[in-house]
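SEQUENCE-TO-STRUCTURE ENTRY
===========================
What this section holds: a protein sequence and its matching fold, both as plain text.
Tokens: labelled as protein backbone structure tokens, with as many entries as the chain has residues.
Question of interest: how does this chain fold, as expressed in backbone structure tokens?
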Amino acid sequence: MKNDEKLDLNIPRLRGSIEQAGKSVSVRPRDLEIESPSTGKRERSREVYQGMRTNLFRRSVLGVLIFTLLFPAGELAVLAQTKDKQPPQPQPQQAPGFSISITVPVVNVDVVVTDNNGNYLTGLKKENFRITEDNTTQVITNFAATDAPITIVLLLEFSKLGYQIFTYNAKNWSAVFLNNLKPSDWVALETFNMRTSVEVDFTHNRDQIMQGLYQLVFPPFSESNIFDALADVLDRIKDVKGKKAVLVLASGRDTFSKMNLDQIVKRIRETDATIFTVGVGQQLFLRADATGSLGSIRELDFLQAENQMRTFAAMTGGRSWFPRFDGEIPSIMQDVASSLRNQYSMAYSPSNTATDGKYRKMKVELVAPDGGPLTVTDQKGKKVKFQVYARQGYTAPKSHVDSN
């Protein structure tokens, strides 16, 4: 080998190959070469290879002989038997039993207070509120007057009912509501007829909602499944954090839902969202009643629909409106947004810690510092009547007992 040639012994894996200058060269024993000191030339030498094999064999035999002398066969046999006789280590056993998971709830209550003229009463303190659960006074642990961003779903009736007047009103009136939103508010659009459809998911962009409203042109069905639609939207926003609300613009009639009234009432009792309802059929109802074409059966249907809409809102601390004229819509939609922005947020840990899954009635009252009824007066010193809007109760959680 010439002096200026170098061999790069870079061995990435034990495969009997080396890499030289980026090339892989296989090496076999018979190809070993040595450089003759007398001639300076490379010569093949099988004798060198055989000598290497002889030395390797001798070293192996010598190692076996030394091991045998140090550890006689008898000691090796005793050592093997000792290992075999060692008792196995006992496996730890887990005693059977039960694991009990108990959740102590914290009940959140959003409260709105207005006078008879619709003015919001601000500046109230925690001492001005009393919450009772099943007639037992609770201790309010958290209290704040917040103006948090709104998270709301517009739920519109999109059917052929009412000569499509219901759909026409729902579309136009919901567009008016968008004018009351702030850039930080979240809004979504969902429609229903025989089935529900999410037209626009939650967004800050009001133009996306308007585009969704423009696309509602031809209703596909003459059904109005408001029970199923409410259950669907409440399930969708169940895990949404913070303040959340549903604005329902519908006639209130249910024609083909899988759920009945009792089932949707039970579902509403489980939600912490606030439901606002705006009836879109009052104009048609009054027109038909004035012309004598309503009939007793249809009159009962409209009255029942209106009562259902009021019930859905009252259960969750919301409000209901049944406008007769389009001129009422701007103030109604402003009231919806103002109700959400003028809420008192409170929380308490219920004194009844039973996790039985039962419904518990709740009542929120205004009280004076001495515990008596609170008196509210106007600028002239006259007493003013007020209205408290809060959810009427909640469903307690259930405990889970799992056996192992």
Q: What stands out?
A: The two ends are 76 Å apart (CA to CA). The domain at 107-401 is CATH 3.40.50.410 (Rossmann fold).
